[in-house]
Amino acid sequence: MTNTPLLSLQDLRFRWPRAEHDCLTIPHFELHAGETLFLRGPSGAGKSTLLSLLAGVLTASQGQVSLLGQDWRKLGTARRDRHRADHVGYIFQQFNLLPYRSALDNVLLPCGFSARRRERAGQPREAAQALLARMGLSAQDWQRKASELSVGQQQRVAAARALIGAPELVIADEPTSAMDEALRDAFMTLLLEACAAAGSALLFVSHDARLASAFQRQLDLAAINEAKAGL
Ligand SMILES: Nc1ncnc2c1ncn2[C@@H]1O[C@H](COP(=O)(O)OP(=O)(O)OP(=O)(O)O)[C@@H](O)[C@H]1O
């Protein structure tokens, strides 16, 4: 085993088109295999932007961002999409489920994009059902269209989709924002347990400081970002 971090970022500089200032200037950041990290920062600080850079959805204007030792900028679009599908599960702020597909089909999507995830899932259908059950969705709900599920159920489907095929990295962008306290606490326990069971690292963004203590590491984006937020 090498000591290569799962994620590494060096001398990153990122500016949105037409913006007058850098959104992010981060000299260094690392996340290790299996690690759980809580990332906080005020609204507009650049948390979602950073997640997109780490997942290779955006590429940096300067600097290096690598996942499993692979620099995102050295990959063309198709290979970038493959690398992401193989190794990253993403829980979006707005879930991004396919509304007319069933909960089960939504969870199976990454296995359609990535042979590696499909293989790691073993029997994908059974794996998807097990994840949905673990997330507290009943067998009846598995066949319901995503658009017919409650917001809390949709968030749990999105989590199951991110976890299928045990990607090395799970990224969660404010996944509990639409949940009440009881559901949120149950969801956090499930998510952390499922990541531990899969050996996935978890990079979790939230404004809710009460969740932070469940993570191995906590980080304020302002502590690593040298760009002047809000200018
Ligand atoms: N697609 C985009 N095009 C141009 N500017 C953008 C885009 N997305 C975000 N920004 C800008 O980048 C900055 C950081 O936004 P970002 O969404 O990353 O912050 P955040 O910390 O995730 O905020 P929040 O906590 O409110 O979700 C903001 O100034 C925002 O206006």
UniProtKB/TrEMBL annotation:
GO terms for molecular function: ATP binding; ATP hydrolysis activity; transmembrane transporter activity. InterPro entries: AAA+_ATPase, ABC_transporter-like_ATP-bd, ABC_transpr_LolD-like, MacB-like_ATP-bd, P-loop_NTPase. Residues 7-231 form the ABC transporter domain. GO terms for cellular component: plasma membrane. PROSITE patterns: ABC_TRANSPORTER_2. It comes from the Bacteria. SMART domains: AAA. The keyword Ligase does not apply. Keywords: ATP-binding, Cell membrane, Membrane, Nucleotide-binding, Transport. SUPFAM superfamilies: P-loop containing nucleoside triphosphate hydrolases. This is Putative ABC transport system ATP-binding protein.
